[in-house]
Amino acid sequence: MMRDFKPPRRLAGTTLLALLMSLAGCSLAPPYQAPHMVLPASYKGTGPFGLANPQAQLAQGDWWKMFGDEKLDDLEASLNAANPDLQAAEETYTQARDIVGEARSQLFPQLSAQAYTTQNSQSKNRLFRVNGGGPGDESSNGYGPALSWEPDFWGQIRNQTKYAKSNAQATAAMVASARLSLEVELANDYMALRALDSEHTVYTTTLGYYSDALKITQLRYAGKIAAGLDVERAQDQLSSAQAADTDIEAQRAVLEHAIAVLAGENPSSFSLAPEELTHLAIPVIPVGVPSALLQRRPDIAQSERLMAAANAEIGVARAAFYPNIQLSANAGFEDDGFGGLAALPNSLWSIGATATLPLFEGGLRRAEEQQSRSAFAQAGDNYRSTVLQAFREVEDQLVLTNKLASEYGQQHDALTAAIKVQDLSLRLYTNGLDNYLNVTVAQVAALSAELATVQVQSRVQWAAAGAPRTCPPRNRPSRSTRSRCTTRRVTLANRIKHVSRPALSDYERDR
């Protein structure tokens, strides 16, 4: 006769533990794959760029040193060390990392210690009290540990941790993008200030020329060989140029204050000595291949990490459909006094489990899951938009770099011709062979050509550096106080409308 086989308790416990561990490894989030986009083999635009290894980009570190300006190097170093906006952004990343720690802590059992003491007194006239039965006063004292744990059977806590971690990585990319934006803004303002210094030099030379022209008209008028109208025209030219030069000085002061704030210094005690734009070098930027762009830009890294966070959130929403199981255990000692509180007969313990399963909530869980899937799709759309925008900006930059180099040569030729016309017109007028109106027209053309040359030169440097949010020094919309320098008869040609923003630094994700 065969006996019924009963597995030993140890084997049954081992089997149950293995089952729980296998369930604890379950995750209901969809498998996440980095978004794939079809990329071209090369850029369409051309310019003075060279291929480079994306892991060895010049822009990976102190990219501004490519301009060869020691003062700019010092200002950028001061920005990274003392700019309050950048420091506030870095604290945001610190907080995001702490949130990851909070989420991860729920994976482990929570152990605590508790102690209590109570003194209770009952009413002598309470209901159903037997005469003299039971004590009226009693005390209770106890202490012991308490343990609670929520096994992550459905991967809810792990997905919450992944969500927090991906958000922290996106925040790290945001901080990198904020640092880059501040560095670029400082470089832009610094170049704008140096462009204003160059324009001030142009006006200083022009004012000397206009003063000489005014003296000539006054001498001819005194000799009764010229009309008073010529004197007034010459005076008008001189005064208009003086007003424009004063406006440049005002704009320079405002830019100097903006640079001081970006560098974390007080504008009242900050100053920059005048220096022309020509001392800044025009670097050759290694642009790399299109596939490397996805690894270099912090805004793309941020969008990709937000996609990963949205994917983990789907797992959190799906886990809500399954039972929520919690295990708890308590132990300790309890007695009505303190003398023998730790005696073995006063010991106590309890262990238990609770399970909660939603049955009807009016479609709440389903709506949460659909919302999380829609958020993931939205994050994917935002990622694609960010990538396309990045390629647009790089292509714009390549075209602008190439065209601005040609424009600078053409503008320099125009300047040479305008100066010759100005000198010739004044000589003809001095010899009585021409009227002063033609001199005035030539002077306006020469001044416009000189200012336009300075503008194109600054744009060539900015475009070669690939600085984001770049536009001409005197037309940047970010500072409302920077007015366009104009006089009644001086117009600036070839104003740029906008310049694109390729990446200036590599960003390595904090995985």
Description:
With 511 residues, the protein is of the alpha+beta class. Helix content is 55%, strand content 9%. It has a 4-stranded antiparallel β-sheet, with no helix packed on it. The chain is elongated. The model is unreliable at 1-9, 15-19, 46-59 and 467-511 (pLDDT under 50).
Radius of gyration computed on alpha carbons: 38 Å
- Largest sheet strand order: 1-2-3-4
Range of strand content: 5-15%
Largest sheet: 4 strands, antiparallel
Per the principal axes of the C-alpha atoms, what is the gross shape? elongated
Q: How is this fold's topology laid out?
A:
Layout: H1 9-24, H2 70-82, H3 84-105, E1 110-121, E2 137-149, H4 156-222, H5 228-262, H6 290-296, H7 298-319, E3 324-335, E4 347-356, H8 364-430, H9 436-465
Antiparallel strand pairs: 1-2, 2-3, 3-4
Helix pairs in contact: 2-4, 3-4, 4-5, 4-7, 4-9, 5-9, 7-8, 8-9
Outline of this structure?
This protein is of the alpha+beta class. The chain has helices at 9-24, 70-82, 84-105, 156-222, 228-262, 290-296, 298-319, 364-430, 436-465, and strands at residues 110-121, 137-149, 324-335, 347-356. It has a four-stranded antiparallel β-sheet with strand order 1-2-3-4, with no helix packed on it.
